[in-house]
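Just wondering, does anyone understand these tokens?
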Amino acid sequence: MQKDNIMKILATFDQVVDAVVLLPTEQQEMLVSLIHGWHIEKRRHEIARDAHESLTALHAGKLKPQSAETIIRELRQSLEEDEL
């Protein structure tokens, strides 16, 4: 069942792409702008949700306050480990 849904989504995606290719350049640019705006708005909501979850965890005592320097150092170390 899941494979059928994926195939339908892919077929629909292909149809959308085919339709967009046929649009005039100006309309393609408008569509790109719209999609970009939607993407930004979606990311804002995700960031707000993550911030809310983090604050809830902090107030529940599941997280400890840390300085920005400590957090940045830990993030850099994590990124360096991922590169190895």
Observations:
- The chain is about 85% helix and 0% strand.
